[in-house]
């Protein structure tokens, strides 16, 4: 199987429901779960801020954009260490940011999370954890296009920031106050410009990038903002495509050639808009969600995303995925790309009016691990398959006192190909669980064949084992609170 196919397969099984939406599993009584307050995503990864001030990240992680301090892909949301009191997250391409209640901005991912050399556990995959942007303070909200960002301060002013390299090729972060910008409610970057929405619903444009020199403008080069003839409640941008939400609930799109706004047919009674890659997401006042794949042909029209009802908030990404929060507090994701990595799973498959297929999946709460009362953290990803927990070789087993070994055994059928299979053994005290790989796999408890189903999944950076079956066979107690993500193991 190709690496991309494996990657897509594991995202299909990774994001299962919070709470008790699916039966099965050994779980304790569910506590009241925290809710998502902000979500964002880039290319095949996502981040979310929760009502307890924590942040979780998951997905494609080559540049450390998940925020766990590695470049290992994380197929289950993972809590990001060192972040607290977060009120908003933002992401684009391969970078991530968070804003705290104190007005701080934290950054990680491409350009911000450099490699950490000579780490004894991860010599080639260790990345820096999120770092605070020291040049920003009293920030209310931020936006980013991946290479730069703009912070709106609590007093309504704004600051542009971006990475640049000096004459000695030393990386620095430059902060550029946007002069003449006051009373700002929201700002986003559109190509070489910044679009700003003030508290009165007035929209203005500011040129922030020098196309001739190929760099962001200095403070002295930035001119006063130019007001556009639009009176809106909010706006959404995908690269150079801009959409406006009018105060009457209709949606307008900017025509680049005529520089005029035209109404998007079929969208009325809209309360919020967001964007993905070449798609517009719209939340109606009745709690339904609509999507428009506006670059898929002249006949493409907005269609309802079936399965998303009673929605109270939506968020966009720079990929093909959207996020939603329903009135029950469930955090959902939907996507039309098999390998999007954010929203595929055993959810509802939908066909829009333009033939697009969407999959809706509740996003799993970030998992936390305690073994014999001690917190356990590990680098490689955990996983979920058929609502069962899977963990890597270097995870909880050592803390549990479980020893692992493997050997090659001859196939029971002499005509079988291959002629031998790998047998993994997990020993604890006088008990043993063995999994012999084959078609199908065979599970043995103390040498006696069991009918328990078990998979061993080989990933590009780890091997994942079925934790619950192993604990059952070894007599180790495991409790999983699916509402909070807490997993308690007592050996």
TrEMBL record:
Keywords, in A-Z order: Repeat
Matches recorded under Pfam families: Cu_amine_oxidN1 (PF07833), RCC1 (PF00415)
PROSITE patterns associated with the record: RCC1_3 (PS50012)
Domain Copper amine oxidase-like N-terminal intervals: 370-489
InterPro entries registered for this protein in UniProt: Cu_amine_oxidase-like_N (IPR012854), RCC1/BLIP-II (IPR009091), Reg_chr_condens (IPR000408), Ub_ligase/GEF_domain (IPR051210)
Protein name per its UniProtKB record: Copper amine oxidase-like N-terminal domain-containing protein
Origin species: Paenibacillus motobuensis
């Amino acid at each position: 199987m190709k690496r991309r196919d494996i990657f897509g397969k594991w995202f299909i099984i990774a994001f299962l429901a919070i709470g008790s939406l699916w039966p099965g599993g050994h779980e304790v009584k569910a506590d009241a779960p925290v809710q998502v307050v902000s979500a964002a995503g880039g290319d095949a990864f996502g981040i979310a801020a929760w009502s307890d001030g924590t942040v979780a990240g998951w997905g494609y992680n080559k540049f450390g954009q998940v925020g766990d301090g590695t470049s290992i892909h994380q197929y289950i949301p993972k809590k990001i260490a060192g972040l607290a009191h977060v009120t908003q997250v933002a992401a684009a391409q391969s970078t991530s940011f968070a804003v705290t209640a104190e007005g701080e901005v934290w950054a990680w991912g491409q350009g911000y999370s450099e490699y950490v050399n000579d780490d004894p556990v991860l010599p080639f995959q260790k990345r820096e954890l999120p770092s605070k942007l020291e040049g920003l303070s009293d920030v209310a909200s931020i936006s980013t296009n991946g290479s730069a960002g703009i912070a709106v301060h609590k007093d309504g002013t704004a600051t542009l920031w971006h990475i640049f390299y000096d004459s000695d090729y030393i990386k620095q972060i430059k902060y550029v106050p946007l002069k003449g910008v006051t009373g700002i409610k929201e700002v986003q970057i559109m190509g070489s410009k910044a679009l700003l929405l003030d508290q009165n619903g007035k929209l203005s444009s500011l040129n922030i990038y020098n196309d001739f020199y190929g760099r962001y403008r200095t403070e002295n080069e930035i001119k006063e903002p130019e007001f556009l003839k639009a009176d809106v409640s909010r706006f959404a941008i995908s690269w150079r495509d801009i959409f406006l939400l009018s105060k009457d609930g209709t949606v307008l799109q900017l025509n680049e050639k005529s520089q005029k706004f035209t109404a998007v047919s079929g969208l009325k009674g809209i309360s919020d808009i967001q964007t993905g890659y070449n798609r517009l997401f719209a939340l109606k006042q009745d709690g339904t969600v609509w999507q428009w794949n506006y670059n898929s042909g002249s006949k493409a029209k907005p269609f309802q995303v079936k399965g998303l009802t009673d929605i109270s908030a939506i968020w966009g990404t720079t990929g093909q995925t959207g996020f939603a929060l329903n009135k029950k507090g469930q955090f959902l994701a939907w996507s039309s790309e098999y390998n999007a990595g954010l929203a595929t799973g055993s959810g509802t498959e939908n066909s829009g009016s333009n033939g697009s297929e969407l999959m809706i999946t509740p996003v799993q709460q970030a998992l936390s691990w305690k073994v014999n009362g001690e917190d356990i953290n590990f680098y490689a990803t955990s996983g979920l398959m058929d609502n069962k927990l899977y963990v890597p070789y270097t995870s909880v087993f050592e803390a549990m006192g479980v020893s692992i070994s493997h050997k090659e055994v001859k196939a029971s059928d002499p005509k079988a190909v291959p002629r031998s299979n790998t047998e993994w053994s997990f020993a604890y005290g006088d008990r043993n669980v063995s999994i012999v790989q084959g078609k199908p796999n065979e599970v043995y408890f103390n040498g006696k064949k069991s009918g328990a189903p078990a998979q061993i999944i080989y990933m590009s950076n780890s091997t994942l084992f079925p934790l619950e079956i192993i604990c059952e066979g070894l007599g180790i107690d495991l409790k999983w609170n699916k509402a909070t993500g807490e997993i308690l193991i007592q050996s």
